[in-house]
Amino acid sequence: MHAIRIIGVEKNFGEVKALSNIHLEIEKGEFFTLLGPSGCGKTTLLRTIAGFCRQDKGDIYIENELINDVPAYQRNTAMVFQNYAVFPHMTVFDNVAYGLRVRKLPKEVIAQKVKTALRSVHLEGFEQRTPDKLSGGQQQRVGLARAMAIEPRVLLFDEPLSNLDAKLRIEMREEIKAVQKSLGITSIYVTHDQEEALVISDRIAVMNQGRIQQIGKPWEIYRDPLNTFVANFVGKINMLTLKLGPSAGLGYREASLGNITLHVPAHGTEQLDSIIVAFRPEDVVEVRSTDRRNTITGSLRTVSFMGSVARFEVDVEGQILTIDRHRPRETDIPPIHSQVVFSVPPESVLLFDPVSGKRLGKGDRS
Ligand code: ATP
User: Fold this and answer.
1) What is the distance in A from the centroid of ligand 1 to the CA of 41?
2) Ligand 1 mean position to 77 CA, how many Å?
3) Are 297 and 341 in contact, with CB atoms under 8 Å apart?
4) pLDDT (tens digit per residue) in 177-234
5) Which CATH architecture group holds 2-232?
């Protein structure tokens, strides 16, 4: 049984198509993320599942129950908000107990459930504090404990970490993931932060302009993007539009731009004159000479030292490409404006149709 099924959901706000033809199935216990840029419709979809917003078309099921007409408070979902949404005048205990008291549970049961929820977010001993005496991270833990305490069928997270500083965000995302896995509550998480999505999710739906572009495990989304939008949105990627030329033999074809000539897999390119060649900064190999196949030469523009890698921006035929040098040493970094030669291994190249933006040889949901 799916925990959640969404079939053909549409939502318009006047002229704005906030959600178009959304189909989703989420498994029980799954940590599922809606990822996309501002305005892509992810919050609208989350709010529609919660019951705060009514879809114009389509059906939503929670555990096989059609909930289109079930009011939010009867859906047995719980939301963790961006702005914590803890009640400032109530103690931590009362905040977490809130939903349990609404459900009129016996006092001892409430005490036990609050204790369990606070233990799982590491806030034992904070029961009598008020939120003004808590840090942002602790307030968000109270929000999480309050949502979990009612043992909802689905936990919904609306960018819960966006008000926290960078270090705390990383700590909290680990914690949310650990708590979610230990309780096994089906969770839907909204974020525009692609790194957060990769780290925290079992599966991700990447959205753009109200449509799902791709659904997959973090590895699939990053390594096997179905279109240029997903490839660009998740992680850094280089894209060059090259003119397709003659066969290079052995199932390859030449593709060129100015002084660059690359060999790309011929399969699927038969009808095309040009092609988008894409590769990740970490996949290129710096080389000493241009003798190797698939080399690109450019002029070094900037170097950003990022700890585990040094990220080079290289001007290639007037376009800026990004390449990463692994395990960088300060003394080995070439001077700015010097020539950098690197090769792009054919197996790490992704090819896209320049008109539709779709990956060659792959289906596409968009
Ligand atoms: P963000 O990350 O900025 O919150 P989002 O991906 O969550 O963005 P939504 O908030 O779902 O996007 O909005 C999707 C589209 O619908 C946007 O164009 C937005 O302006 C529009 N929209 C959302 N809610 C309303 C509303 N109540 N009235 C009118 N338009 C709305």
Assistant:
1) 6
2) 21
3) yes
4) 988 988 899 999 999 999 999 999 999 999 999 999 999 999 999 999 999 999 999 9
5) 3-Layer(aba) Sandwich (3.40)
